[in-house]
Amino acid sequence: MISYIYTLLPSMADGLIITLEIFFLTLILSIPLGIIVSIGRLSEIKFLFKITEFYIWVMRGTPLMLQIVFIFFGLPIVGIAFDRFTAVLIAFVLNYGAYFGEIFRGGMESIDKGQYEAAKVLGLTSYKTFIRIILPQMFKVVLPSIANEVITLVKDTSLVYVVGIGELLRAGKIASNRDVSLIPLALVGIIYLLLTAIFTEIFNKIEKRYSYYE
Amino acid sequence: MILEVDGLNKSFGRKQVLKDISFTLETGEILAIIGPSGAGKTTMLRCINSLEKCDNGTIKIDGSYLCKDYNNKSIYASSEEMKFIRKKVGLVFQNYNLFPHMSVIENIVEAPINVFGVSKNEAKDKALQLLNTMGLEDKINSYPFELSGGQKQRVAIARACALEPKLMCLDEPTSALDPELREEIAGIIEKLVDNGMSILIITHDMVFAKRIANKIIFMEDGRIVHEGKKAEFFNNYEDDRIRKFIAL
Predict the structure, then answer these.
(1) Which of B107, B119, B10 is nearest to B67 (CA)?
(2) Interface confidence (ipTM) of the complex
(3) Full-model pTM
C-alpha cells in the first residue's frame, strides 16, 4: 500500500500546487479588496454605500460555484473572455472580497469613536488616522473571523474543478476512479487536514503576537 | 487673551444645546466650567476643540479665528489654518482615549512625528522629559491597559502637552479618580500654568473647582448663568440655583 501511495504523490503534488496558487492569490488580492469594500460600506457618500451594498448582496447571495461558472462560461457571451485560471481567480477574489469587506466593516465599527476624536484633536489626517490608529486595532478584532474565512478558502479551492482545473481534489478523484480505490480520496482528506492545521497554527501565532495589548 | 468665545449657538436637530455663549479666558488663567449634566458644558468644549461645529458665533484662540460669525452663520477657518489653530489647543478626554495598541511613549510621540514632522529623537527626548515631570518614567514602555486611571490621565496630559498647546482643556479630570488623586492632578495643572499654559476645565467636582480655578462659569440649560472670580462665585448665596448646586 505504501508503494501505491507513493505512485499517487506526483499527481497529488501537481494538484496541491494549483490549490495553493489559488489560495494564496485569492488571499493576497481579496484582503485589500475587502478593506476597500468596507470603506465603501461605511462611506457617507450614498452612491458608494449603495454600490458596495449591492455588490456584497450579490456575492454573498449566490453560490461561489455559480459565480465561477458565470465568469468563465457566461461572460464570453458578451465578449469578455478569460482563461480558466484567471476566471476562477476573479470569481474567488470578488467573492472573498465581499466576505472580508463585511468582516472589516464590523471590525471598524467596533473601534471606539473616541479613537477617531483623539486622532483628530492631535491633528492626524483621516488617512493617517486610518492607517496608524484604526487599521491596527481593527486587525486584532477581526483576526478570529479572518482565520475562519481562510480555513473555508482552503476547502473552497476544490470548486475550481467545474471549469476543469486540476486541483488537489480533482487529482484524487481521477486516481480514485482509475484505480477503483478510496485511498486517493483519503489521502486528499489528509492533505486538506494538514493544510488547515498549518494555517490554524499560523493564525494562533499571529493572534498571540497581537495580544500584547488588551 | 487666549480664548474669546462670542455669541455661540449650537443645536442638535431641534434641541438647542448652546444658547448665546460668550466668555473670555485670560492668558495664564484657570477657568472651571461647572453645572449640571446636560447643561452643554461638554458640547461647548467640543466646539472649542473643533470636534463639533457651532451654528453661529465666533471662537478666537490666541488671536486666530477658529470660526467667525458672518451674517449669523459661523464661517470656519480653512483646513490649513485649522491645523495651525488646532495645535494651540490640547484636549484631555474624560476617558483619556489613549491608543491601546501603542506604548506610553508611542502614544506621546505619535502626533509630533506624524503630524508636525519632528525628528524621532527629538520627539522621544521631549516625551521622556514630559513623562519625568508626570512621574511616569518607569512606565515608558507600558501599554495603556497596564496603567491605573490616574496614570492613564497623566499620559493623556503628556500626549496633549507634547504639541505645546497654549490652551489646555480637561473634560471632567477628577471624575474617574480617587479623591486623594485630586491633589496630584491639581499639582500637575498648576505646573502647566507655570509653564505658560492657560487652562479650561469642565467639572462637576466643586471641591476641585474651588481648589484650582481662578474663574468660574456656571452653566445651566445651555446658558451661562454666572461668570466671575472664584471667591465671588462661592459667596454668591443670593442666586438660588447656584446655592443649590454648591450645596451638592
Answers:
(1) B10
(2) 0.91
(3) 0.87
